[in-house]
Amino acid sequence: MRIANVHGRVVLVNAAGRALDIEQASGGLFGADPQALYPRWAEFRRWARETGHETAVLAPQPFEPEHLGSPAPLPRQVFCVGLNYRDHAAESGFAVPDTLPPVFTKYVSSITGPVSTVSLPEGGHTDWEVELVVVVGKTARHIEPAHAWDHVAGLTAGQDLSERITQLQGPAPQFGLGKSFPGFSAMGPYLVTPDEFTDPDSLELGCSVNGVQVQKGRTGDLIFSVPVLLARLSAILTLLPGDVVFTGTPSGVGMGRSPQQFLATGDVLVSYVEGIGELRQTFTAA
Ligand code: ZN
Known about the structure:
The strands form three sheets. Strands 1, 2, 3, 4, 5, 6, 7, 10, 11, 13 and 16 form an eleven-stranded mixed β-sheet that branches. Strands 8-18-17-14-15 form a five-stranded mixed β-sheet, with no helix packed on it. The protein has a two-stranded antiparallel sheet with strand order 9-12. The protein has helices spanning 22-25, 34-37, 41-51, 86-91, 164-168, 175-178, 226-234; strands at residues 2-6, 9-13, 19-21, 68-69, 78-81, 103-104, 111-112, 115-119, 126-127, 130-136, 152-160, 162-163, 185-192, 204-209, 212-218, 244-246, 268-273, 277-284. The protein is an alpha+beta fold. Helix content is 15%, strand content 30%. The protein starts with a strand and ends with a strand. It folds into two domains: 2-63, no CATH class; 70-284, Fumarylacetoacetate hydrolase, domain 2, CATH 3.90.850. The structure holds zinc ion. Zinc ion (ZN) binds next to loops. Zinc ion is lined by residues 80, 129, 131, 160, 246, 248-249.
């Protein structure tokens, strides 16, 4: 099953890319707010199954990708995982983490939908990081990896845009601030439930700048897989329905290239995750 956020309303999306408004289809049982669906995720899945919407979206309406917001527009917690692919840790000059990767946040004001125009911070070095993003569908505390997928509502594609000068300046890195300029956390186009994938632990992801591919990886190469990440996070804190986890980026970021390359005015960044879809960011001057 696929859901999306069209003009702030949560919809079911069929294979032809057409949408059914969930509040209307459910006669008001579920509201329009995409974020409010996650605390009722099990009930929503049951409703979709029993009404047949899970397999056939009835009377679907067309929409444009430009009208999509993030499938999780206002999560209570956003987790971002650093150094979760060996090649990316190497290009960043760091050792591979053993028990716990670096975890930080992207502040929620930076979240946008899949198609956006992003203003480049003046004097900055804005870099790309395509990532698989997990949206939590069930409260998780002290869970085992074997049960972790039961706590996932679905997967979406994400861009962890990062301004490297802000991120790395000062006596301690400023990951949260360097990655939270407006528009720096694109997500979408859809939330896809784990059962839609042949193997949700092995998906290709990548991105291109002006049509030239710069990143390409597979989530099967994650050092900490989705189930292990959720288990390790839940050993420390409580994961809440609707929380978002950016799972880390593969190699090929601009900072790790020789010579280094950063986003410039007029650049178009297209990011994808297999089985989910595409994000498209266009960059302008501040
Ligand atoms: Zn990242």
